[in-house]
Fold:
Amino acid sequence: MSSEITIDNRTVKIHLSKAAEKALSARDNPLFVEMELYFSCLIRKQVLFHDSQRQDSSVSVDNKLSVSFHPVMTASCQIKDAEPEPAKSDFEMQRRDCFVPKWLKLDYKKRKWIGEFGYIQN
Structure:
């Protein structure tokens, strides 16, 4: 299944595998997917899955799925701070729409959600 949502005036294409569609339909409550863009010494893209809404800016794909984009940063940039993961804070951006991904792919394998997002249309 593919659909589109708008986050910060940017269209994001959502792609669900057959397994993800089936797992979503079996849920009693919506799944909240967070596309986290992490700024520190390096930039990391990570997809997080939650059973409750964490971001006020979540956009509903349908009654079973909501998606949000969340840029975060750390206060320091020391490699020794990487494990365990350092505390993150919101990263306020002037042109947030420039950083919103173009696509999000979701799958469900071995009873676990898997996701990735990107910026180059494929």
In short: The chain has one domain: 2-74+81-118.
